[in-house]
Amino acid sequence: MIHGLKAREFDRLSREALGDDIQRGAIGKATDLIRGRRGAAVARLPEWEELRERARAVKAHTLARLDHYLLQFVERAEAAGVVVHWASDATDATEIITGLVAEAGERPIVKAKSMVTEEIGLNHALEARGLRPVETDLGEWIQQLAGEPPSHIIVPAIHKTQAQIARLFAEQLGSAEDASAEELTAIARRILRQEFADAAIGISGVNFAVAETGSFLLLENEGNIRLTTSLPRLHLAVMGIEKLVPRLSDLEVFLRLLPRSGTGQHLTSYQSIFTGPAPGRGAAPRRGRGGGPGGAPPPARRHRRRALVGDELRRSSLQCIRCGACLNVCPVYRQIGGHAYGWVYPGPIGAVLTPQLAGIHEAKALPLASSLGGACEEGCPVKIALPEVLRDLGREAGEAQGEAPGGEGFGCGRWAWFMRTPRRYRWALRLARLGFPLGKRLGPFRRWAEQRELPRPAARSFRDQWKERSR
Amino acid sequence: MRVSLFVTCLVDQLRPEVGLATAELLERAGCSVEFDPRQTCCGQPAFNSGYRSEARAVARTLIEALEGAEAVVTPSGSCCAMTRRYRELFAGEPEWRARGEALAAKTFELAAFLVDRLEVTALGARVAQRVSWHDSCHGLRELGLRAAPRALLARVAGLELVEAGLREECCGFGGTFAVKHDAISVAMADRKIDELESLGIDVVTGADLSCLMQLGGRLERRGSRIRALHFAELIAGGLPALAAAAEEPAR
Amino acid sequence: MSARDSILSRIRDGLRGVEAPPLPAPDPVPGGPGELAAFRALAESVGVEFHDTLASALGDARSVAVSDAPEVAAAVDRLAAADGGAGGRSFFDGWSDRAALLEADAGITTAQYGVAETGTLLLIGDDERHRLVSLLPPLHVALLRRDRILPTLGAALAALRREDPAAMSRVTTFVTGPSRTADIELQLVLGVHGPRALRVVLTDPPAAANP
Question: Of A213, A288, B101, C10, which is most buried by a Cβ count within 10 Å?
């Protein structure tokens, strides 16, 4: 059971989202802005394509030797004083973390934005124990106040307008109904400062982990990650096993790609590189960093992860550095927003990751929720062949639907059989023409024709007309 | 130059006029045009659904039909782009891979062939309309098709090219996507159409019939006055008929 | 089987027979110093202000936290000794008094390096206790020696790297401009969690200061 997984309801969720004009307006405006900034930032870097290729190559190499680099990282991190816990799945991970929290006295918890903790449903698990983890990234905090998951990887509340956020704050915190972004931010700073001051435990994710030094890196703009990792006495960093790079120098290419791809900045305001626990304050030494590699899939899906690692195409999905660029250029995401994808990862990368991590049966609609135009692949800084993976998953989804190889309605197998010789091709077309009046009211044609005119087959095909023309 | 037409299955069955117009433009540019009726489809529908072995089976048919040609020209950016994928599609079959690559190397999208290969832009057409170009995803990203069609349109007398801000946005077709997720697909088309209508254009044109079916089908349902036409049809429609042209001086 | 063993065996099963594509050779790290002017231009582009004197950088800040760097102490001493003195400001050890730090108007630290490519300051944690002093007050003033400019991020990473990982700095922070957010309709707001303003005072290397 994966907490919050609703990808099966994609059809309903996406239709509801299409009806939400405010959300569509907010997402359209925001993604246009980010795309403009990203485009300008990329244009200033003539070597952009070389950087993408280098980043892809580093990730592809690392993932193909993941066991080696994972062990090297853990060994070096432990030598530097980090306490490493291994979690083989989401339940394992949340149990380890709740255990560590209990050991630390169940004191207040602050959290930095982390996709892997969303993936394992950490907040839910902590809340089930009566704990109150406080999200400290402004967008995440807004989403926590609203009782909603984030709808974008980089801008969690991208689907909300300032007016909606002001109303939310007014209801929950008693602030002015018409507060400006500046005022809303100041309110968040004041309240969260107190949370930071009280917190005993800070939980973060990991953006990149360096095998050769046992270091890890976190990027941000707000400073909440710096606070989360410096004020509380215990820092728990939760890391997916795919976050590795071999060498410290490999961080350079990602530092150049990620901010430009995510927000169009040449660098985000802060990067923190940790190698072992930070020097303690005064006499009380800080506890080691815990947290497991293996922000892993839920138990039932172990074999999926293996398939993910074993297959070259699928393994490439693990190259993702969570920049959100594919969301910002995706014409489907623009229309339906993040929540319609029904889990942690929205947009093209969500359509790729959710079926693989949660299982194709949980997310059959997602791989087909793409027009395969390739804007996502073009925008991806690590060159994940997103449409290629989607095509591959689309077939798996079709087969999971109980399609004979061939596909529902469409019938790829049958179709291919007809297309294999010109004679069969002509039969098929004759049949199609006969069936057209009926087909208009059935199956895929009906869904086409509900809101669009259906093209009518020509009275005489090109090949028939050509025969005459050449005579 | 002898050119073999790959008309594509959609044009063959739904808009043969596009195929005839393609032949006419090629002839105006001085080519002799052939059509080999053994061709069926490039394999793209199966490929896009993840059915690679089915796609290979169909691709072989196309390779066998057209590999003898001097040059192959198609009025579809996405079908042309599909031939570029044969290399990878047949990765495990060296012989077919070589044949597929050879076919891809001499297969051209119509506008790219006329402009980049034959260096012909002026075809003598006159179309007094306001026209917007839709950059289809596959032509744009896989073939870099951007300048060539615009160069052709620029030489059509009376034609005013109106660039849409959303010209490179997907129309929402995407094969099975258009029916599996029809509501999203239509919303994507509407976003483009809203802009096109605000531009006061007469025609939206492009190099892929599938996108034009999507935009055209929605335009028609919305009761719009904008027509969606393949550029070959648009330009050929503005050519003086060969016979009429010959008679003209006599009048 | 332990979680560790089961994770590793799952990965190894998956990767059986997989040949790893080569790891690209590292890009050569440019030698020599970076350009101060480029550093300054990039930093200014993200809102960093450059001041000639500490007094001007501190502005009307009254309660000022300082890090434990001797250069900071020396700069504060010079300020107090100069005409006009400390100007009614009070200075305290930001790293030892957290309650006061939470209320401070400004924090002064050094930065170990600047990076010309991005206008970034490097705060190396083993050299100075500057994590909180640079983060909690609304104004962060950083003293940076003008001969400590590195050309690129790659050079910065090379400067941090040690053959023995145990010798690496425990925490290093890269700082490029003030704290910022754009989480509400992508409107830029400064100072969301960290400082709203970042001011840099460029200092001369000791030899140059006393020729």
Answer: A213
Scanning the structure block, which residue is given the tokens 């061709």?
B39
Q: Does B216 touch chain A (CB under 8 A)?
A: yes
What is the C-alpha separation between B45 and B79, in angstroms, rounded? Answer: 10
Is C185 inside a domain boundary? yes
* Chain-chain contact of A369 with B177 (C-beta, under 8 angstroms): yes
The CATH number of whichever domain residue A387 belongs to comes to 1.10.1060
Residues A161 and A235 in one domain: yes
Which secondary structure element, helix H or strand E, spans residue C106, and what is its range? strand C106-111
Cross-chain Cβ contact B51/A450 below 8 Å: no
Query: Are A39 and A155 in the same domain?
Result: yes
**B vs C contact (3+ beta-carbon pairs below 8 A):** no
A471 touches chain B (CB under 8 A): no
Enclosing domain of residue A419: 412-470
CA distance A317 to C104: 46
Q: Give pLDDT, residue C211.
A: 43
Q: Based on the structure, what is the number of domains in chain C?
A: 1
Higher pLDDT, C40 or C163: C40
> For residues B160 and A93, what is the distance between their CA atoms, to the nearest angstrom?
62
With CA atoms as reference, the chain C residue closest to A246 would be: C23
A462 interfaces chain B, CB cutoff of 8 Å:
yes
Q: Which chain A residue has its CA at the smallest distance from B42's CA?
A: A419
**Which chain A residue is nearest to residue B175, measuring alpha carbons?**
A371
d(CA A330, CA A347): 7
Query: Could you give the CA distance from residue A185 to residue A190 in angstroms, rounded to a whole number?
Result: 9
Chain B positions in Cβ-Cβ contact with residue A416 (cut-off 8 Å): 43, 46, 51, 54-55, 57-58
Of chain C, the percentage scoring pLDDT greater than 70 comes to: 96
Q: In chain B, what residues touch A420 (CB-CB under 8 Å)?
A: 40, 57-58, 60-61
**What ipTM was reported for this prediction?**
0.96
Asked whether residue A339 is assigned to any structural domain, the reply reads yes
In a domain? residue A20: no
Domain assignment present for residue A78? The answer is yes
Query: Does residue A153 lie within any of the structural domains?
Result: yes
Within this chain, do residues A371 and A231 fall inside the same structural domain, yes or no? Answer: no
Which range of residues forms the domain containing residue C76? 34-203
Q: How far is A453 from chain B (nearest CA, A)?
A: 4
| pLDDT tens-digit profile, chain B (251 residues) | 999 999 999 999 999 999 999 999 999 999 999 999 999 999 999 999 889 999 999 999 999 999 999 999 999 999 999 999 999 999 999 999 999 999 999 999 999 999 999 999 999 999 999 999 999 999 999 999 999 999 999 999 999 999 999 999 999 999 889 999 999 999 999 999 999 999 999 999 999 999 999 999 999 999 999 999 999 999 999 998 754 544 444 33
Q: What is the pLDDT of residues A338-391, one digit of tens each?
A: 999 999 999 999 999 999 999 999 999 999 999 999 999 999 999 999 999 999
Of B45, B49, B213, which has the smallest distance from its Cβ to A395's Cβ?
B49
Number of domains in chain A: 3
Q: Please report residues of C whose CB lies closer than 8 A to that of A182.
A: 189
Q: What is the CATH number of the domain that holds C194?
A: 3.40.50.10420
Q: Which part of chain B is CATH 3.40.50?
A: 123-236
Q: How far is CA A429 from CA A415, A420, A460, in A?
A: 11, 13, 11
User: Min CA distance, B154 vs chain A (Å)?
Assistant: 27
Chain C residues with CB under 8 Å of A246 CB are: 23
B145 φψ region: left (φ > 0), alpha (ψ -120 to 50), beta (else): beta
Q: Do B51 and A412 touch (CB under 8 A)?
A: yes
Residue at C192 is within a domain: yes
Same domain, A193 and A332: no
Tokens found for residue A319: 């190259």
Closest residue to B184, CB basis, from A332, A406, A461? A332
Residue A122 shares a structural domain with residue A101: yes
Whether A320 and A256 map to the same domain: the answer is no
On whether residue C134 sits in a domain, the answer given is yes
Q: Taking a C-beta distance cutoff of 8 angstroms, is the pair A337, A151 a contact?
A: yes
- Rounded to whole angstroms, the Cα distance separating A87 from A296 reads 7
Is C157 within the bounds of a domain?
A: yes
- In CATH terms, the fold of domain B123-236 is Rossmann fold (3.40.50)
What pLDDT digit, counting tens, does each position of A46-77 carry? Answer: 999 999 999 999 999 999 999 999 999 999 99
Closest listed residue to residue B27, CA positions, set B249, B241, B250: B241
